[in-house]
Structure formats: C-alpha cells, structure tokens
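Duplicate of #3305? Posting structure anyway:
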C-alpha cells in the first residue's frame, strides 16, 4: 500500500479490535481478530496463552516493569510448560528457512499478568515487530480487555462505531497516532477525531457536526461526492483534499471502512496524512500552519499598533476587525471602563477575589465585531456561544481599563497560542493607549481651563520662546541682544491683543521680540536681564512720541532648561487709569493745601496783624500811665505775635513757595532749618552741591515726601536725630530721610490703618512721578525712607 507501514499496521489493529470488542461469541471474535492481526504482522503463528497460576503469581511478585515488558523466547520448551494455549491461528506459509523467533506481548488483567499474545515469525520479521512494539502492545491490551469483559460477565453489546472510536482514542492516548484521524459514520457525522486533526482543521467534533459533519469541510467541492460515496458505501478510498477554513491545508485522505457481521458499512476510519511520499505524520503541515498563524498574528499586531500609536483617535471597530480576522473568531468585543469608573485593584487580596466582584457593563463603553450579519443575529437568540478567550486591560499599577475578548464558532478548536499572544500584546498596547488617552484628555481639559482663564482674565499674558538658550555667563548687553535676535512671541491672550491694538491674539504669535517691543523703551529688557529675568510687581512706563504715557505693572519669570534661559513668561496689567487717578488725587490735595495756605495768609495772618496793631494802639491810648495795664496788653501782643508765627509756619508748610522760587535743594535746606527748632532733636541736611530738580510737579512731590517723612518721625518715633540727604548720579536722583527713632515693622502696615496714611501718601506721591520708594525700618532700629527717581523720567517729562 502507499501509506507507511505503521499506518497500515494501525488500521489493521483497529479492524481486528473492532471484530474483537463488538460483542457476540468470544471464541469466534478472538479467532477472527487473531487472523486479522496475524496477517497484518505477517506472522507464521499467533496465539493467546494463559499462564498457569504459579506463573501468574510469580509474575505479580516480580518488578512491575515486567508486566509491560516483552518476552523474547529462544526456544519453546520452557514456555509451553508454563502456559496454556487458548486460541491459536496458523498462517499458510511454512517455517522460515532461516529459523524462527517467538515474541510474547504481555496481557494484564486487573493487577496480574494473565497471559500473553505470542507471535512466531522469522527473525527479520521479529526485529521489525520489536521496532513497532508500542503499536503491537495496543492489540495485546485489547485482547486482555475482551477476555476481562467475558470472564467478569460485563460483556455488553457495544456498537461497532463506538468500539472503533474507543480503539482510536486509546491509540491516540498511547501516542501511536501521528497523523490526523477521525471516525465517521456513513452519513458523514464525526464520532471521534484526535487533537492533531482538531489543530489542522480548526474544528472539534461538535463543531464539525454542527456544520453538517465532515463532508462540508472538504474542499475542493468536487471531492465531496467521492468522500460521501466512500462513507456511504463503505469503500476503501484514497483522495487528496483540503481542510481548514482559516488556514487551509492539503492532505491525503485514506478511508478505511468498518463493516458489521452482515458486511454492511457502519463507519469509516479517516486517516489524514501528509501529501509527502512515505510520510504519515503531519508535523511538517503543523509547523507550516503554526508559522502561517504566527505570521498572521504578527501582521495583525503591526496593523493594530499603527492604529494605537497614531495621533488620531483609534477606530476600535477597525481594531476588532483586525483581531477577528487574525484569530478566526466569529465575535470579538472590547469593553472600556470609563475614566471615572477605572477599577483599581487593592494591594490586599488575590486578583481572583477582586475579579469576582460584579462589573456593570451597561455603564461602560462596549465595541463589538461580528464575522458576518448572520453571526450577529445568531448571538441575539443563542444562549450558549462557542469557546471564548479574554484578557484584562490591566496596567502595571493594577488599574483595570477593560477587557478584550474573542469567541469562536460553536464547536471550533480552543484558542491557540498565537491567538493568546495577539490578545495579550494588544491588551498591553490598549492599556498604554487608554492611559495615554486619559492623560491627553486631562491635559486637554487642563489646557481648556487654562485657555479660558487666560483669555478671560484682564491681565495681559505672553510667552517668549528663544530659538537658542541664553548662556548664563553672558554680559547684560549680550543677553539683551540675544533676546532681541532669537526671541519670538509664542503665546498671547486677548488682553495683550487689546493692548497692542490687534483684533486677535493669534496676530501676535510668531512675531520677533524686536517687533514686539518696537517703539518701546528697551531699557525694560536691561532691567529684566539685570534682575535675572524675574520681575515682581515691576512698574513700567511706556512713552511713545506725542502720545500720553501709559503705566504698567509687570511680572516675569525665565524658564531655564539647565543650559540657559530658553523662554520668558510674562504678565502685565495696565494701571494708567489708577496712576492718573492717584495723580489727580495728589493734585487735588495739593490745590486744597494751596487754598488753605492762601486762606491762612489772606485772612488769619491779616486778622492777627490787625489784632496786634489794635492792641498796640490800645496800650498807647489807655494805658500810657498805667504800667500794670501796659504789661497785660504786652502779653496780648506777644501771644498774637506767637500765633502769627505759627500761622506763618503752617502757611509755608502747606504752600511751600520756596520750592518754586529757590528749587528743591534750597527748600529741603529751609525745611531742615525749621525742624531744628524742635527741642531735643538734631537735624542735619546733606547736599552734593549739584543735584536739583526743575520739574515743578516732581520737586513738589519729593518735597512733600521729605516733609511727610520728617513729620511722621517727629510725631511717632521720638528720634534724637533726623538726617535729610539729596544726591544724584548719571542715572538717578536719590532723596533720603533717616531717623534713629523707635522704628517699626513694615510688614505690619495695613491699608486701613489711620496711622499709616502718611506712608501710603508718600507711596502715591512717588508713584505719580515715576519714582521708587523704599522703606527700611525695624523696631528699635530707626527708619530710612529712600526715594529713587530715574533721570529718564525727568527727560521724558521734559520732552
């Protein structure tokens, strides 16, 4: 025959065992089975022998391996004395010319060696038998089973197809079936199939029968008639067919019919073998099949990864289609837990305990894929599905994001390693994707909230990116030039757009810093660099040609990536209205003081002068000869004169005409001179001899600050010395008032405190003229108030 000798031998053993175990008369069944088996192994003689009781007992006492061993006899004398021949078959050929060899296969019944299956043949044939001893032992086992059933009176009339299926299953369990084998009835219904055939065709027996049996799974279609006729008529047929839907494989099919005592076909043993000559195993086909599945799995992983790593949102329907096609599933599903419901596994307790907790899938997003519309309809009405396999989408920190699963056709083969790999790897990739989606969604929401805040806030916000980081050791001028050359506006909000007079903030994005500050005072950049790119509540004045000055409060911070400043964040608020209002308030206060000074001069001073003259006339007219009266009137005149002096001092305080007349330096000198009249206070004044201010408003406000600082010191600090100083350099003018009084903590200043109104008024006055006011004080350590006025302010005001 064309098949291998092992395959042919196994088929004959199946035929012999079918005859042996199908029931009926034991003697006839055994003799007929011995005949079939003896002819199959080409023996001269085949016999069933039973050992005498002494031999059987001895066999039990020996090592257990003896019951599985094969006895090789050199002569027949000893064995004939120890055994009784119960059944015997003798072939037609005579003794071999080169002698005979005897091989005995043990028959074990229960827990003892009952007897043996003795084969007598030529020595070369005996060697052939020894190489196939595993297959031959199946026959010895089957003889023993038949005898056991007969003697225990449990012999049942087992149907012939069931007997054949049991024999094939036993052969498969003993590892004697190396190809694909199925037992099929005349109508094509599969009674048994081994795991190799399940792996090759992708269906279990239930799945094959659910879909019409073996015949509908045979291709090409024209071969189905041949197979159907062979099964129905019980023909011994050989045909080349293709099986497997997802991964088709071409094989040789040999059908061996099994007939009953009436010679009617009851089933057929279908042997699926390799198409390679003289090869019965399907290892090559299985390896090719596994390689094909592995390639398909890897291709699916590549396609799926392209979906999951794309910047676009993943199309989960397409992803499930890839999974379904790669695994040959009829149904694939993906359950995604929504971000608010992400399950976190506790540190204590097993995963199994946690997964037993109910998860309500109707609250989650679920995606489904069906291999066909018919499958979708079937799943709506079926209670039971086919084999399923699912993996959790689980992160390394035990967060469950969902499940990915597949379902095969009912009756199809269980999942394969390649399918498990596809789902496992995709589960990890989906976990990464979903976690990235959560992060991106959180970032998107954060950016949305940030953008809403930035676009609605009244404060102007911007970001400047530098194409090259600024070296930290560069000079101030170099850093300023670097910002101008490489700085680009990369972010701006609506408030900044309004400040620059553009309709949309996007119009500012991408413009260079040199244009961004075009026309503005670039000294701001120098101040920014000198302060290490960090400004806090920095007041900045913008003066453009003939347009009014605009006032801003600016905050900035530099972004350092470790290699130098690579960007600058900034915010600014225009305070022009506040500055103008403060200036108007100060001007109104100054006008009020001027009116008060004029009233003192024009009314009170005049009235006091008239009173003094009236008193003098009264003394001359009525008390010329009355010394006592003269003295009393003299007291009145002195009081009036003293009051007139106080009024004159008040007038000069509220209406310092000497500031306009003599300048700031001289006015401060006169102020210090008047303060020297206070008892127990030493007042000094230092002037560099050159510094002075010619702007009326500036020198008036500086004078008022010095005046208020001195008044606060004398009123609250109880100083023993008071020092006033006016000096200047090329960049600024500095006015400083210092005392050695009680001092105070500047951090305790509150806006609503009446005792600090003088300090706030000094800040307002300094702010209105663009000067900086610093207060340096500590309890018990005196107070120093310094006003710094940039000369550029005077130049702008002068311009």
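Output from current build:
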């Amino acid at each position: 025959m064309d098949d291998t000798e092992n395959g042919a031998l196994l088929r004959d053993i199946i035929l012999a065992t079918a005859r042996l175990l199908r029931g009926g008369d034991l003697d006839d069944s055994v003799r007929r089975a011995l005949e079939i088996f003896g002819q199959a192994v080409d023996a001269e003689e085949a016999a069933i022998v039973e050992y005498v009781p002494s031999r059987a007992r001895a066999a039990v006492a020996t090592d257990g391996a003896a019951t599985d061993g094969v006895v090789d006899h050199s002569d027949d004398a000893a064995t004939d004395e120890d055994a009784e021949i119960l059944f015997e078959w003798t072939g037609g050929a005579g003794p071999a010319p080169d002698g005979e060899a005897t091989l005995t296969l043990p028959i074990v019944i229960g827990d003892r060696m009952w007897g043996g299956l003795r084969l007598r043949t030529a020595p070369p044939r005996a060697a052939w038998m020894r190489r196939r001893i595993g297959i031959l032992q199946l026959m010895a086992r089957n003889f023993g089973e038949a005898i056991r059933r007969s003697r225990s009176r449990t012999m049942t009339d087992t149907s012939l197809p069931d007997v054949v299926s049991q024999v094939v299953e036993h052969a498969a369990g003993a590892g004697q079936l190396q190809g694909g084998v199925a037992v099929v009835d005349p109508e094509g219904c599969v009674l048994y199939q081994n795991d190799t055939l399940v792996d090759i065709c992708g269906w279990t027996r239930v799945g094959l029968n659910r879909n019409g049996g073996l015949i509908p799974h045979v291709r090409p279609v024209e071969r189905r008639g041949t197979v159907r006729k062979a099964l129905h008529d019980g023909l011994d047929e050989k045909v080349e067919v293709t099986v497997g839907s997802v991964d088709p494989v071409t094989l040789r099919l040999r059908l061996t019919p099994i007939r009953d005592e009436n010679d009617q076909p009851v089933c057929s043993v279908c042997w699926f073998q390799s198409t390679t000559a003289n090869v019965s195993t399907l290892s090559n086909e299985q390896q090719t099949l596994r390689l094909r599945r592995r390639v398909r799995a890897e291709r699916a992983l590549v396609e799926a990864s392209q979906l999951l790593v794309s910047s676009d949102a993943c199309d989960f329907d397409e992803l499930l289609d890839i999974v379904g096609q790669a695994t040959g599933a009829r149904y694939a599903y993906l359950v995604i837990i929504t971000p608010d419901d992400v399950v976190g596994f506790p540190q204590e307790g097993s995963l199994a305990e946690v997964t037993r907790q109910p998860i309500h899938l109707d609250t989650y997003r679920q995606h489904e894929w069906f291999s066909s519309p018919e499958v979708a309809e079937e799943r709506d009405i079926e209670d039971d599905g086919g084999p399923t396999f699912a993996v959790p989408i689980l992160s390394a920190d035990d967060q469950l994001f969902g499940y990915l699963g597949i379902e095969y056709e009912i009756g199809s083969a269980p999942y394969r390693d390649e399918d498990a790999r596809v789902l496992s790897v995709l589960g990890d990739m989906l976990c990464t994707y979903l976690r990235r989606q959560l992060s991106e969604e959180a970032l998107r929401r954060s950016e949305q909230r940030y953008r809403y805040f930035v676009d609605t806030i009244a404060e102007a916000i911007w970001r400047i990116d530098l194409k090259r980081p600024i070296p930290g050791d560069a000079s101030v001028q170099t850093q300023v030039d670097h910002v101008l050359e490489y700085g680009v506006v990369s972010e701006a909000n609506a408030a900044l757009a309004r400040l620059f007079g553009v309709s949309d903030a996007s119009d500012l994005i991408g413009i260079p810093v040199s244009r961004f500050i075009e026309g503005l005072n670039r000294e701001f950049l120098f101040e920014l660099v000198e302060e290490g790119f960090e400004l806090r509540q920095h007041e900045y004045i913008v003066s453009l040609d003939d347009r009014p000055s605009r006032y801003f409060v600016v905050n900035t911070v530099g972004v350092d990536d470790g290699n130098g400043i690579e960007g600058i964040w900034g915010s600014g608020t225009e305070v022009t209205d506040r500055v103008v209002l403060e200036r108007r308030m100060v001007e109104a206060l100054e006008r009020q003081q001027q009116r008060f000074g004029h009233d003192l001069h024009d009314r009170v001073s005049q009235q006091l002068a008239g009173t003094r003259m009236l008193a003098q006339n009264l003394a001359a007219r009525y008390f010329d000869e009355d010394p006592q009266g003269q003295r009393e009137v003299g007291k009145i005149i002195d009081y009036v004169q003293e009051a007139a002096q106080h009024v004159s001092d008040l007038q000069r305080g509220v209406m310092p005409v000497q500031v306009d007349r003599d300048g700031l330096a001289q006015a401060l000198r006169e102020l210090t001179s008047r303060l020297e009249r206070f008892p127990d206070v030493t007042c000094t004044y230092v002037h560099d001899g050159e510094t002075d201010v010619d702007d009326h408003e500036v020198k008036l406000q500086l004078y008022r600050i010095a005046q208020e600082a001195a008044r606060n010191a004398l009123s609250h600090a109880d100083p023993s010395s008071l020092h006033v100083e006016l000096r200047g350099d090329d960049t600024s003018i500095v006015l400083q008032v210092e005392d050695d009084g009680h001092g105070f903590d500047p951090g305790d200043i509150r806006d609503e405190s009446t005792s600090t109104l003088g300090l706030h008024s000094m800040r307002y006055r300094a702010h209105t003229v663009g000067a900086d006011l610093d207060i340096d004080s500590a309890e018990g350590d005196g107070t120093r108030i310094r006003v710094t006025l940039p000369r550029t302010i005077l130049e702008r005001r002068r311009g």
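Confirmed duplicate; merging threads. Residues 222 and 241 are 10 Å apart (CA to CA). The longest helix spans residues 576-622.
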